[in-house]
Design a protein that fits this description.
Rossmann fold; 2 domains; Dihydrodipicolinate Reductase, domain 2; binds alpha-L-sorbopyranose; nine-stranded mixed beta sheet; 391 residues; six-stranded parallel beta sheet
Length: 391
Amino acid sequence: MERGLKIGMVGYKFMGKAHSYAYRALPIIFPNYPAPVMQIICGRNPLDLEEARTNWDWRLATTDWNDVVQRDDVDVVDICTPTDTHEAIAVAAMEQGKHVFCEKPLGLSESAARHMERVAQLTGVTHMIGFNYRFAPAVLLAKRLVEQQRLGRIYHFRAQFLQDWIVDPDFPLVWRLDRTIAGSGALGDLGSHLIDLAHFLIGDIASVTGVSKTFVSQRPLASKMAGLGGQSESSQQKGPVTVDDATVFLVQFVNGALGTFEATRFALGHRSTNFFEINGSAGSVRFDFERMNELSVYFQDDADDVQGFRRVLVTDPPHPYGGRWWPAGHGLGYDHTLVHELAEFVSAIEEGRSAHPNFTDGVKCQVVMEAVETSCQTGRWVTVDYGLSGE
Ligand code: SOE
């Protein structure tokens, strides 16, 4: 019986490539975890699919995800597809007893996400969602400082996820701009990460108020499906953008802290700025993904003549994942957060425990996003009711 976890992955664009890379690195960096076996990759276009299979060294390939979920030689299904297919693939896979890793956001709606969570609980499989920024060492250090009360009582959490890839009005109408496929725009694609970080670092949210905008409402039809980076040829015909280009919102946390959030694809000059700052009664921290190996910290009890934010390079042995990769001073990147999250997933499967973040975190995120959308439509504050059936 071959050891290791046999992976069936659905999707081969940005996330499919990133996860393939992470599976390759896993056994080198986490040799004591079950080694992933890259068994079968699934995608729609046979030519692109075969190129992905050979380039990333997957054993098999299929254009039918039903094949992936039904195979006896697959233990895990990794869903790297657009949002509209998450629910069907995940439910079918879990009903076949497969463990499931699903990219964010979990589903097209709160009800879809709750269905996925319910099936995960009924089938008892290990389930996880791809909120990868939790796994940056500097983010984990910020969490440690909050949990150890070293920032004191938390007053503010401010977070921004800023991109600019569709500022050009001639950028074509790709799937991320179609509500029926993506579920939402900047809110679900970028805001979901910020909401998860808020839950992870600060706690539950009591109420929200928001405003969203679609700056460019019509775009050239994409002559073929293209992803974020893939420039598809644009036709002269135009179609409607049915998602938000930007959503900004305020939250009141259950613990009394205030939150300000900004998710936009129209922040010209920001390729993928993912930033948060936490202000407490005893200190503050600042994380900027563009300098992801650093955490800026401020502590009130520093001597009066040296008060100020200082930079901690989060690569030393006492730091999260310190020493796991390289000696102190050698930084990590975006890809390392994916290796960390997949290490959490395979170790949870091996140890028979819950993985975190999981589908319950996905449901909580979906609940907050729908509250924000309701507020954007009504112009009022909306109370958040997680109504969790989970653990
Ligand atoms: C595109 O906006 C995107 O790839 C998101 O979908 C990812 O979740 C984020 O990590 C980077 O930007």
